[in-house]
TrEMBL record:
InterPro entries xref list: PHAT_Smg/ZCCHC2-like (IPR058599), Vts1_dom (IPR057327), ZCCHC14 (IPR042344)
Listed Pfam families: PHAT_SMAUG, Vts1
Protein name: Zinc finger CCHC domain-containing protein 2
Domain RNA-binding protein vts1-like alpha-helical, residue spans: 11-54
Species the sequence originates in: Ataeniobius toweri
Signal sequence segment: none
Amino acid sequence: MVESRSCVQREGVYRWFSTLTSAQRAEFLYGLLDLCVPIELRFLGSCLEDLARKDYHSLRDAEIKANNPADLSGLTNVTDEVVRSKLLVSLALLGTDNREAAGVLYRTLTHIDTVINNYGLALNDGRTEEQFLLLFTMASNHPAFNFHQKQVLRQQLDHIQDILQ
């Protein structure tokens, strides 16, 4: 009886999780991982590495660009949907210890107030809203950013969420 109840609860969680946006899924998973003990994290890291291995070759060129500050410095026009997509890919593929590239991304992302106020970027457009929420969720949790940068990026995320409400 307990086992079937557990399965029902698990299915409910799966259904609930599938309805979340990318930003909400990333935030939720990060929170769950933060609750794990080191041995669980190492195991999950091994599982993630195995899952990611299948896409290694197709993402290799993008990973090189994502970790090259010179390539990232050209991605400054966050009003452009293509640039935002490239920033999302770059954040996903950014190395955990690449502080220099993280600094370039940080400088780009912290000018968002100016972009919103000066260009009247419509954040309430579904796709734009989702991209900005995911960008700042990923950045504010990414290990390549230092503590202060994460705090500022989290404030930016909170500001964007306030604008959207």
